[in-house]
Design brief:
By secondary structure, this protein is an all-alpha fold. It has a domain of 100 residues: Cytochrome c-like domain (Cytochrome Bc1 Complex, Chain D, domain 2, Orthogonal Bundle), CATH 1.10.760. 36% of the residues lie in helices and 2% in strands. The chain has a two-stranded antiparallel sheet. α2 packs across α5 and α4 crosses α5. The protein is elongated, with a radius of gyration of 27 Å. The relative contact order is 0.13. The chain binds heme C (HEC). The site of heme C (HEC) has 22 residues, from α2, α4 and α5. Heme C (HEC) binds next to α2, α4 and α5.
């Protein structure tokens, strides 16, 4: 047990070592942004990524797939290929994540809506004229007091929910015998 005392003393000394004697990663030899370098023929330290590489943050696929926007404008058609499977996924996820507020039919009639003091969840039926990207962005980023649901739904599931909301809007229009044109001709 006698060794404990010098060991504790050493540990204490260790705390007081001036930082220049510690090997800190921030103090290592490295290039800063836009610095010159003699190593590369073009004299720049910053390198151009090899052709065909994609930053990890950028979603792969159709433009607007990750954000619902292309150059700041909402995409007008669902970038995910729609089929029965996608619609069923959208239905499942909508019923789990959205319906308690926006209602099973998307008409805003729900138990939560009845008891919600702050702001009522709007009817998604009444905004059928808004582009697909609007619905996607609302899910992805949140909308007003509604939080983002990007933690609950992945990109594929978000677009599947958008497709299902469209299906609800269409079904509603059919039921009423309305002639309301669909927002986009390609669905
Ligand atoms: C906790 C209740 C709640 C849940 C769950 C919820 N919403 Fe909302 N949603 C709201 C409220 C409230 C608003 C209005 C927010 C505002 O105007 O500040 C809103 C707004 C929206 C809007 C924008 C409406 C407009 O006028 O353009 C869309 C689209 C939408 N929600 C879709 C969804 C979808 C899709 C889901 C499921 C992924 C969902 N919401 C889940 C409460 C909810």
């Amino acid at each position: 047990m006698r060794w404990l005392i010098p060991a504790a003393g050493l540990a204490l000394v260790g705390c007081n070592v001036p930082s220049e004697f510690l090997q800190r990663m921030e103090a290592q030899a490295k290039y800063e942004y836009y610095e010159t370098s003699e190593f590369w023929a073009d004299g720049k330290a910053m390198r151009t990524p090899p052709e065909g590489t994609i930053p990890r943050e950028r979603p792969v696929g159709s433009p607007g797939l990750g954000t619902g926007r292309v150059n700041g404008a909402f995409v007008t058609s669902n970038p995910v290929e729609l089929n029965r499977e996608v619609l069923e996924l959208g239905q499942k996820k909508y019923n789990i994540v959205c319906s308690q507020c926006h209602g099973r039919l998307g008409d805003g009639n729900s138990v939560v809506a009845e008891n919600m003091g702050l702001r009522l969840p709007p009817s998604l039926q009444q905004i059928a004229d808004k582009p697909d990207g609007h619905f996607y962005a609302a899910i992805n980023e949140g909308y007003g007091v509604m939080p983002s649901f990007s933690g609950e739904l992945n990109t594929q599931e978000r677009w599947a929910v958008v497709a299902y909301v469209r299906a609800l809007q269409r079904a509603r229009n059919t039921q009423q015998g309305g002639q309301q044109p669909l927002p986009q001709e390609n669905r």
